[in-house]
Amino acid sequence: MSNQFNELPDSRTWSILVGAATRALRNAGFTPNRVPGRGRSNIWEVEENGRHKRVSIRTTKGRWFAFVPLEKGTKWKTLDNVAFVIVAAVDDRDDPRNVEVYRFDAKDVRKRFDASYAARIEAGQTVRDDFGMWVNLDEDDRGLPACVGAGLATMFRPIATFPLEKLIAESAAEPAAVLEDGEGVGSPATREPRTIADVMDWARERIATLSGVRMEAVKLDCRIET
After folding, report:
1. Where are the domains of the chain?
2. Is residue 155 exposed (0-12), middle (13-18) or buried (19+ Cβ within 10 Å)?
3. Sheet holding 160-163: strands in order across?
4. For 65-80, b where at least 16 C-beta lie within 10 A, e where not — what string?
5. Fewer CB within 10 A of the end CB, N or C, for the chain?
6. In the chain, what is the straight-line distance between the N-terminal and C-terminal CA atoms, in Å?
7. pLDDT for 208 beyond 70
8. Which runs of E-coded beta strand occur in the chain?
9. d(CA 110, CA 88)
10. What is the pTM for the complete model shown?
11. Closest to 132 (Cα-Cα) out of 66, 195, 192, 83
């Protein structure tokens, strides 16, 4: 069953994870309504204690989740101006059995992303505006700039856990999600690469982030055999 999830199309796994997030909100007494937007911007509105609040939903198949920095990290797309962040994550990247749904205060998330951004800049890494930056949900003691800000899931327990087998079976009867063009932060990519150069650029940035080196130090070779 676990391999089945990893082999599903990205649109299907994204729908399953978002569905788990919204189900967790409903189980907690909220009625989530998606704020109109493009692609996977995934901003929702809920009512809590008589007050309407905005929520940012994030999904991840690798236990890392992302937000998009703007204006050299002074702003964060779809993180600023929300009250809290919901992250739907598989329990294990290679052998997922469950989807865990976490609720984090947006201020706590912002502090983590600000710290991670600052650590990468201090290390001489390139962090581009309007391109997703990832932070690990779990503790990461490798000592790399990318490890800064990690560990939210060790401080907060999931608000809900759903068996993947059941979620997959339920999703089979639902229409596939239509992903529009535009800003989106999923896993692993934040936006669909449109050229081979885009794919190579994204891969170099991710490798640099995970290995703690400058992006310029990563050299990739792409060969297409026909």
Report:
1. 2-190
2. exposed
3. 33-34, 43-48, 51-60, 84-90, 98-105, 160-163
4. bbbbbeeebeebbbbe
5. C
6. 34
7. no
8. 33-34, 43-48, 51-60, 64-70, 75-77, 84-90, 98-105, 133-136, 160-163
9. 18
10. 0.78
11. 66
